Amino acid sequence: MKNIAAQIIKHKKAVLIVFVLVTILSTIAQFFVSVNYNMVDYLPEDAQSTRAMDIMEEEFTGEVPDTRVMVTDVSIPEALEIKEQLAAIDGVSDIIWLDDVVDLKTPLEVADQDTVDSYYQDRNALFSISVRTGDEVQITDDIYELIGEDGAIAGEAINTASSQKMAGTESLYAGVLLVPIIIFILVISTTSWIEPLFFLTAIGVSVLINLGTNIFIGEVSFVTQSVAPILQLAVSLDYAVFLLHSFSDYRKKTANPEEAMLLAMKKSFPAITASAATTFFGFIALTFMEFEIGSDLGVNLVKGIVLSFISVMVFLPALTLYFYKWMDKTKHKNFIPSFTGLGNKVLKLRFPALLVVLAILVPAFLAQSNTGFTYGLGVQPEHTRAGSDFIKIEQTFGETTPIVLLVPKGDVAKEEELVSDIEELDYVTSVISYVSQVGTVIPSEYLDETITNEFYSENYSRIVINTSQPTEGDIPFALVQQVEDLASEYYGDEALSLGESVTLNDIKNTVSKDNVVVNVLTVVTIALVLLVSFKSISIPVVLLITIQAAVWINLSIPYFSNTPLVFVGYLIISTVQLAATVDYAILLTEAYNHNRQEMSARKAIIKTLDEKTFSISISAAILSSVGFILWITSSNPIVASIGLLLGRGALLAFIMVVLFLPAMLLIFDKVIQKTTYKANFYKEK
Q1: Selecting from 3.30.70.1710, 3.60.130.10, 3.20.20.100, 1.10.1200.10, what CATH number does the domain 398-504 have?
Q2: SS3 at position 457
Q3: How far apart are the C-alpha atoms of 499 and 480, rounded to whole Å?
Q4: What's the whole-number mean pLDDT along residues 556-562?
Q5: Distance between CA 135 and CA 180 in Å, rounded?
Q6: If one looks up domain 1-32+190-334 in CATH, what number appears?
Q7: CATH superfamily of 336-370+535-685
Q8: Where in the chain is the domain with CATH 3.30.70.1710?
Q9: Contacts of 361 (CB under 8 A, 6+ apart)
């Protein structure tokens, strides 16, 4: 490390030029990275709905109706005219309305009233449409222009369009709020007005390079775009703080800044490496998720940690040595009072803290295992047009979600029996198929292709099932299962289903498996890093119990508050919180082990708390601020839930490390001494 550090210092100008050029290129490159808002694309290729979607695209020109459009105060002829105008909008297809399910030449009074009310009531018309993927913003804008202020749109297309429109604004808003807060936290934690800018520049450069290098991936998910940059900043800012604090210490011992930096790099390298390694391997676990939004985020975070580490160990020393005089000129007094005496006070709470945590640990674990979950993007906030439109449509027509079945073409009698069975299911409002709309008497060969193409392709028959249920929940998922079971009875594995409910059911099944894999991998990999770092069997157990308890308490709160949790957020945060906050426990335990070699366990823990509580509180404050600001600024339910869980999790981890971990270290002091290689603990005479 000493030789590498010497070379970095020697060629500091070249280092700065290279990093500036790479950062400029990366900043430009990030604008050419596309963002994917379609969660279906992140399902495994062998998922049922993925296979069904591929066949649908190959066999049929239309897509699954996933969006509802309501027009108010129109007659039947006016509604039919609007249907034609909707069909004329580029990107709108497969429009289903009342004329597709009942014969409008006969009086509506003789038709099934529930069916009629699903599409037309009180002079309000409700159309189900398909919107071309990738162009949701333009298409929904065109629809709004047609239907006016009184009309409404609800469904997947408008949710995606709203998320796309808000993404840039919300990221900017989060940055505007976050940067001043981080600068304030860093200013009070240092003795220089300019030093926080060095921290932010070093990590900011790595964030920009990370965003730019995504051009080699091609596209990223909306979760990655929203969460990865801000999370990278929060979890790796400590690396820069470690290095510059060490540099400041050595400046007091030597007049030569280059020598001070050389010593600082050598001293801080093990601590930064250990901190980066736990986070790195924690994030690696996300890359094993089958639901690829998790692996997409994991790859970006792993890449970000590596780039932050390189930036801090290579770019920051060069930058600091060029501008260290600015730090000297902008010195200010220490704003934080001494924490001396805190250790004694905390130690008095060790038994209550231990009892409280042990009392709530099992209930918290059980509660977080039984939390209610949602799996989609959900409904937009009420204050948005998309949110108010959803409420307007739901109040008028209730909720409805289509399920599309693809079955082998050919056996009309079998298809008719299947359709008849499906129509008998609870919550099914109508079934649109060849046999229900045209009948079994007229062979499809005798009809115009414009009619038959809606129902038949070369190999498949398409059946659209309209249900009176939302996109997800116990009943919608049970209904999907009933439809799939019925289709399987007639066609076996050849029958395939698709639609938003089907997709979300597949996401649920996929991420439920991911949960076990990711959590086990996270704990095992971090445990191995801790085992190597501390050369101890017991210390990794103590540290993991401390942080994992904070994770369980955090994830149990939605259960006790009866608030459904977005499962993707739950799965990601169960990994991210453990990986990002275990550093607090490492910092405290490393200092404790060092002090324990010179004094008794009680004195060592008091000294450690006096010296390290402030450093841990700064890290926790930054990570918590990042989380809560993501929660406040994002209208995307997944991003907002990750933010809330991250903000709350960082605070809980801080509390656990300061109150619970010292008690554990004291109680298991003898065990730790016996199970740690060359512990060299102080023995009282």
Answers
A1: 3.30.70.1710
A2: coil
A3: 10
A4: 91
A5: 36
A6: 1.20.1640.10
A7: Multidrug efflux transporter AcrB transmembrane domain (1.20.1640.10)
A8: 398-504
A9: 549, 552
Q: What are the backbone dihedrals phi and psi of residue 676, each rounded to the nearest 5 degrees, phi first?
A: -115, 130
Model pTM above 0.85: no
Sign of the Cα torsion 628, 167, 388, 155 reads: negative
Give the C-alpha separation, 616 to 612, whole Å: 6
Confirm if 502 and 406 have CB atoms less than 8 A apart.
Answer: no
Q: What is the pLDDT of residues 322-349, one digit of tens each?
A: 888 888 888 878 777 777 778 888 888 8
Average confidence (pLDDT) over 452-481 = 85
| Integer Cα distance of 66 and 290 in angstroms | 25
For residue range 86-115, list pLDDT tens digits in order. 989 998 888 888 887 787 877 877 777 877
Determine whether 475 is exposed, middle or buried from the number of CB atoms within 10 Å of its CB (0-12, 13-18, 19+).
middle
CATH architecture of structural domain 44-161: 2-Layer Sandwich (3.30)
Sheet arrangement for strand 460-467: 428-432, 460-467, 401-408, 496-498
Q: At what angle do helices 156-189 and 385-397 cross, to 10 degrees?
A: 140
Evaluated on CA atoms 501, 505, 506, 512, the torsion sign reads: positive
Q: Is 126 helix (H, G, I), strand (E, B) or coil?
A: strand
CB 116 within 8 Å of CB 108: yes
Q: Which residues pair with 430 in a beta bridge?
A: 466
Nearest Cα neighbor of 222 from 626, 638, 621 is 638
Q: How far is CA 545 from the centre of its chain?
A: 24
Residues spanned by CATH 1.20.1640.10 within the chain? 1-32+190-334, 336-370+535-685
Whether residue 377 is predicted with pLDDT greater than 70 in this model: the reply is: no
Residue 678, phi-psi category: left (phi > 0), alpha (psi -120 to 50), beta (remainder):
left
Find, among 298, 380, 373, 307, the residue nearest to 636 by Cα. Answer: 380
The number of beta carbons lying within 10 Å of the beta carbon of residue 465 is 25
